[in-house]
Amino acid sequence: MRNNMLGTMTKFRLALIQLMVSPLKANNLNRIGTLVKEAASRGAKIVSLPECFNSPYGTKYFRENAERIPGESTKVLSETAKEFGVYLIGGSIPEEDNGKVYNSCTVFAPDGSMLLKYRKIHLFDIDVPGKITFQESETLSPGNQLCTFDTPYCKVGIGICYDLRFAELAQIYTQKGCQLLIYPAAFNMTTGPAHWELLQKARAVDNQVYVAAVSPARNDKSSYVAWGHTTVVNPWGEVVAKAGSEETIIYADIDLKYLSDIRQQIPVLKQKRHDLYRVQAVQDCKP
Fold first, then answer.
1. Is 161 a catalytic residue?
2. pTM (2 decimals)?
3. How far apart are the two ends of the chain, measured CA to CA in Å?
4. How confident is the model over 262-283, as pLDDT tens digits?
5. Active-site residue, from 161, 197, 201, 285
């Protein structure tokens, strides 16, 4: 596990961009630079965009907006990360590869290099009678690789939206040394009020990590209406930053000394009974 908690960089600023997504891809891509510039000017070292930041979320939109990686959207992300010297988590975009479409997140370093490509591993297939039915699997294929990346501050684990419901993913990332988990996500007006904040708190407390979930802004005219309320939760389960439903940027100072203190005070990660139970990855995380 990285031991940055004992080094000099025990705090850094995280920025989450709750973007109002336009139906036009070009409009979304053209606005990224301005928003990341604002975040960087306020001291953000890691910046994240929301799920499906470049085009509307919905099964009827995924294939028509899908693109290759590298491609148009990732070129903008790379150039933006380099221009403003930040780690940029590119929310997610619909990715086309060999006839399949994936919901994919790319991450770029301050030099513009792509650090990883994560494809959403748990597809959002649900049926809540009288409220919402949605089947991502009608259009999307699932990924099959867990992904983390290193920064000078801490190791970060990536999931997308529905992945937040699967505690095992967060546990494995924590075992791999992650201290911050980031989920670009677009919960809806049914699951958002019920579970959005609850799930983030659960993942944070269970693993004694910071958890951030970054949503698109709410557009009541969309076929799929996002809940919004982009949030950051600390290892004690407290909400330390939270948006409303409108477009905005929220900031949180990630305090790794505080994380270390929590783990020393309630040392559950050291007290697990691996002789009785175990959660482990079938394959190694990338990179």
1. yes
2. 0.96
3. 15
4. 999 999 999 999 999 999 999 8
5. 161
